[in-house]
Specification:
mainly alpha, about 60% helix, globular
């Protein structure tokens, strides 16, 4: 099984507007999340994992100040967890990855892909104790909260 990343498509003509909004105090978490994606993927900007982590971190912590940012943006928390899991833009840190997956998977707006990713960490014992029962629980939550095609589709290869 491989990890699942949250993705949102952003039309090219919005890229400059998103950056301007985030830099001039309109740093809504969703804007910061989209900027993180652009830098992670190199979408219209040079690929820069460190810059992607910066924007994901801002969105993940809810530093945007808007209502959606309160408590952090779950999709950004999931993607930030993946950056720590893979060591992209930050040193590889499984415990930190698990922390961000757990945050993304908690609450009403829990992200099913974060449940899946946390299940993989328990299955492999990465950053958390190896625990097949807990892994099963997270996989079951993921299956209950998302489209089965998305859950099992390989979005990225494991490191």
């Amino acid at each position: 099984m491989s990890t699942i990343r949250c993705q949102c498509l952003l039309p090219d003509f919005f890229r400059d507007d998103y950056r301007k909004a985030a830099e001039h105090g309109f740093g809504w978490a969703s804007v910061q999340f989209h900027l993180g994606q652009l830098y992670e993927e190199g979408g219209g900007v040079p690929q820069d994992y460190t810059e992607a982590v910066k924007w994901y971190h801002m969105a993940a912590q809810g530093l945007g100040g808007a209502a959606e940012g309160v408590g952090g943006f779950p999709d950004a928390q999931n993607n930030l967890g993946l950056m720590y899991l893979k060591g992209q833009g930050v040193p590889r840190n499984y415990a930190e990855a698990a922390k961000w997956f757990r945050r993304a998977g908690s609450g009403i707006s829990g992200v099913a892909s974060a449940h899946h990713n946390l299940g993989l960490m328990y299955l492999k014992g990465q950053g958390v104790p190896r625990d097949y029962v807990t892994a099963y629980m997270w996989f079951a939550l993921a299956a209950a909260g998302c489209n089965f095609v998305l859950l099992w589709r390989e979005v990225e290869q494991e490191p």
